[in-house]
Every structure is written in structure tokens, then in C-alpha cells.
Amino acid sequence: MTVQIRPATCGDGPAIARISRQAFCEAIAQDSPRVQGILREELTFVATIANEVLGFVDNFLTRSAQDEARFELDLLAVAPAARGRGIGGRLVSHSLARARQSAARELRTLVAADNLTMQGICKKHHFTRSDVSYRLYVAEPRPPGAEAGADHGGHLVQVDTLAYSGIWLEGAISQAVVEAGFARAARAGSSRVGAVISRADRETAALLRACRFEAIGEYHWWTISL
Ligand SMILES: CC(C)(COP(=O)(O)OP(=O)(O)OC[C@H]1O[C@@H](n2cnc3c(N)ncnc32)[C@H](O)[C@@H]1OP(=O)(O)O)[C@@H](O)C(=O)NCCC(=O)NCCS
Question: How far is Cα 188 from Cα 192, in angstroms, rounded to an integer?
């Protein structure tokens, strides 16, 4: 049977939520206005066989500190029984084609260092792996200790993904950037504040741990110019 790839619709919410639970143990609030809004943006794609949704990929655009558009390939998952049949690869190919039609000049995806399957897919699509390995730090938003001014020197990226709404801290991360991130999260009603930092950056790691961020795994950025 042929695999079809198409933009997700609001009606795909339950299937996407089920596959996400199976793949990541990550709950997707399928009926929330945030998820429904994302599903209307035509950047999330589903893979179907005979109209049954067997996989999905969630993409969105962000802007770098240099104000360049980036295409973020975020969540990719295939139902366990349907894996190894090329569906994940097809969803990545489709995302890449869509990225090439966007304003972004780069597509990137954060891949766990032990996720050999996803790394295989990235290599097959000629993505380049970062030389540096990274750690992901996340925290639940809390009231900021002190309101930081706008000149904190970091870059705050507000994101709405299928799994969460969040603030990513980028650039040189200082206490002021963390406070600004918490302040922005409080204003935006975000559920997560996150930062991806080099494993070698012990100083920032210590700062984030002191601010009650939790380290989650080891990752590489995989990127491709568009
Ligand atoms: C990653 C995932 C989406 C891949 O979906 P899939 O439909 O099985 O992917 P494909 O069949 O297109 O490709 C799998 C490829 O990885 C290869 N592969 C599988 N296990 C592998 C391993 N341990 N080491 C290296 N390559 C591996 C397969 O041989 C295949 O390569 P091929 O196309 O050359 O044959 C799926 O495994 C999944 O949902 N995993 C859990 C969620 C996840 O990790 N998502 C990615 C990060 S967000």
C-alpha cells in the first residue's frame, strides 16, 4: 500500500496525540487552541496508508539572533508497528521540500546522540552534524526574580510546538537572560523555558542548574542549507 504525505488537519489531532504518546511518552493537548492553531498552519505533515495516520512531523519557523529565518524540524514520530518502512524518511523529505519554499535559509533539527535511526535519516538527507555536542536544559516557568531590561544580551525565541509553548534562551546566557526568559514565559503563558548549550560550557551549565533547570540528554544539531 502506498504511503501518502499531506498537511495535517485539525481532525488528525487524536492520531498525532496517540503516536506521540507511543514514541515520546509526550502528551499532546489535541483539543487546545494552541495545537488546533498549529494544525491549521500546514507545516505539520502526516503520513497515511489507506487513510490511516501512521506518522507525523511537526515543523515551524523561528528567527535567529541575526534575524534570519530558520526552519525547525521538531517532532517526528512513526507508530511503532509501521517503523522501518521508509515513512520517517518520507516525512523528512517532505519537510525539506516545504522548507525550501519558505523564507528560511537553513533547516535544523536537534537529535539525541543515541538516536541512531534519526541520525541515519539525517545522513541520508545530507544534513551536517554539529562538531560540538550539546545538552538540553529545561525548566518550568516561575516568577522572575527581578525584571530584566531589554538589553540583557541574549536572544529569546518564543515557540509554540505540538508538545508545549515555550521560550528558548539563545546567545550568551547570563542570569539576566534567564530572568528575561522567565518574565517572557510568564507574559506569554508558556509552559517551558529551555536552552541548548555546548557540553563544554560548564559555566552556563552551573548557572542553569542554579536556576533549577534540569539537564536532559546529549544532542547534536543537524542542519542543512536550503
Ligand atoms: C525515528 C523514526 C521517526 C523513524 O521512522 P521510520 O519510519 O522507522 O524511519 P525509516 O523507515 O524512514 O528509516 C529508518 C532508517 O533508519 C535505519 N535504522 C534503523 N535502526 C537503525 C539503527 N539502530 N542504526 C542506524 N540506522 C538505523 C533503517 O535502516 C532505515 O534506513 P534505510 O532508509 O537506509 O533503510 C521512528 O523510529 C520513531 O518514531 N522513533 C521514535 C521517535 C523519534 O526518535 N523521533 C525522532 C526524533 S524527534
Answer: 11
Q: Which protein residue has the closest C-alpha to ligand 1 atom 12? A: 86
Provide the whole-model pTM.
0.94
Per CATH, domain 3-104 is 3.30.70.1150: no
pLDDT of residue 25: 79
Q: 10 Å Cβ neighbour count for 202?
A: 10
Residue of minimum CA distance from atom 24 in ligand 1: 116
Indicate if ligand 1 lies below 6 Å from the C-beta of 145.
Answer: no
CA of 66 to the centre of ligand 1 (A): 33
**Radius of gyration for the chain, computed over Cα atoms and rounded to the nearest angstrom:** 18
Summarize pLDDT for 211-220 with one digit per residue, the tens: 999 999 999 9
Look at the block and give the residue holding cell 533547570: 213
List the domain boundaries for the chain: 3-104, 134-219
How does strand 69-78 pair with strand 106-112? parallel
- For residue range 143-196, list pLDDT tens digits in order: 777 666 667 789 999 999 999 999 999 999 999 999 999 999 999 999 999 999
Name the DSSP class of 180.
Answer: H
Find the helix or strand (DSSP H, E) in which 178 lies.
helix 175-188
User: Maximum distance among all alpha carbons in the chain?
Assistant: 58
Cα 71 to ligand 1 centre (Å): 21
